Amino acid sequence: xxxxxxxxxxxxxxxxxxxxxxxxxxxxxxxxxxxxxxxxxxxxxxxxxxxxxxxxxxxxxxxxxxxxxxxxxxxxxxxxxxxxxxxxxxxxxxxxxxxxxxxxxxxxxxxxxxxxxxxxxxxxxxxxxxxxxxxxxxxxxxxxxxxxxxxxxxxxxxxxxxxxxxxxxxxxxxxxxxxxxxxxxxxxxxxxxxxxxxxxxxxxxxxxxxxxxxxxxxxxxxxxxxxxxxxxxxxxxxxxxxxxxxxxxxxxxxxxxxxxxxxxxxxxxxxxxxxxxxxxxxxxxxxxxxxxxxxxxxxxxxxxxxxxxxxxxxxxxxxxxxxxxxxxxxxxxxxxxxxxxxxxxxxxxxxxxxxxxxxxxxxxxxxxxxxxxxxxxxxxxxxxxxxxxxxxxxxxxxxxxxxxxxxxxxxxxxxxxxxxxxxxxxxxxxxxxxxxxxxxxxxxxxxxxxxxxxxxxxxxxxxxxxxxxxxxxxxxxxxxxxxxxxxxxxxxxxxxxxxxxxxxxxxxxxxxxxxxxxxxxxxxxxxxxxxxxxxxxxxxxxxxxxxxxxxxxxxxxxxxxxxxxxxxxxxxxxxxxxxxxxxxxxxxxxxxxxxxx
Length: 597
Hints:
Layout: H1 3-19, H2 30-40, H3 42-52, E1 58-63, H4 70-84, H5 106-114, E2 120-122, E3 131-135, E4 154-158, H6 159-166, E5 171-172, E6 176-180, E7 188-194, E8 197-198, E9 204-205, E10 212-214, E11 230-236, H7 240-245, E12 250-257, E13 272-274, H8 277-286, E14 293-296, H9 303-311, E15 317-322, H10 325-338, E16 343-347, E17 375-378, E18 392-395, E19 402-403, H11 420-432, E20 455-461, H12 480-500, E21 501-511, H13 520-529, E22 533-535, E23 550-552, E24 558-560, E25 570-573, E26 584-591
Helix pairs in contact: 2-3, 8-9, 12-13
């Protein structure tokens, strides 16, 4: 080759190396980006944005201590990993982020760090010995077999599919948007991502038709937008025609990933639960005690609910409420899978959680406090104990009634019309699988709310913008207005929660977002509005400090955050910190005498 040809070839290879890589840039609404830069500073926010595009380097497992122990689980997982093959290029977890914390001594930090050469380790934080870490690795450089005259065969997946793949999932049929021509079963393909792009009308979306043929040319849809958005390599389980003809199933078996994280699907079911570390810390911050009555206001999918029940040794009463029927069913299934009997589930909108004392009685409403002994309980039945259908029993002075489900066969023989919406719903159910194997489901009881001061502790893990979840490849959907609306919604829920905790009780508020308007601003509102509330210390404390100060917006709106001295009483988990967690926030309130409520 001539020197000029060699130079051109090198330029092409460098361009290909940059294209066939994983180096995403998280796109934000410009006003939201300016707001976060004011809150965190330009450099720190850039680090947060980069961290959000990557999964954590480890999986966090909560052991069901009612059924097993950390040591037993570690032994079983090591055996499973031995059978599945060696784990390569694992990376460590650094626990030195919060060295100033008084709750975590340096000896423990050094001990945790010294264990990082092991792929499976027990958490060394006091009180969290039942938490197990399984290390992953990445990002890895992948050779996609590019040559200037023959680009690799390729599959283009949706952003949500890609985010699941980065967490360890396979590529399923519904997630594929486009594919190279002449792809056959067993072909090796590069997997890239189609991320939403700005539309002329100011919105975001994908301007691509599912089933589009990729030629590997600059004329392909999203050709340049896919630069640096390749998440791995896999083997096709179906031909191109089969991929776009099928409605479900695995389309690409991902055998060479940018991030390698172990899958725990159907592993040690009932003994372990995969959960983010800050979520486990939130349950600990509540500090539930045996025999107490506790409310998880927005409980789905049930991870924190079951964590609370296990911390109480399944002794007491944990009320799990959510406004979604199907999500309440999921909580029941998880409780049954973990063998928990102290969890009572209700369908209830958190904005209507308080039942007035002069309200009408309802047989599906829990109405219990120190002055009222009437209780309506619904326990989720596990497989061995019943037929999977929950019963609701009223216990108390006015109740000797058991509700039984009445089945009417009156129209059993009539023809029924199945709508297209029902067909699509059934297709989604088939696509997503049957759910947890040991769960048979059951009825969901509605509630009209609970009487004031009827709980010892309340957890409000509020619905939020979820801007702390990772990996995330797109964030442009949130605007300043939508973020403010999240904050308003959370304040209304907090107004309900604060009424339900008895004097002397505890209220814990948490979110999975980096937005100060949903975190520190909520704490400021709570302390200024309810003088009987005070921030309480949290144990264990491994998160960072909260944000102090305020933010002034161009439209004149002022958002107040924490005051000096309050920042160390909350926990803020930074996704860019060495803890390598999701973005999360926890505030714990002690409830004093309620003179004015």
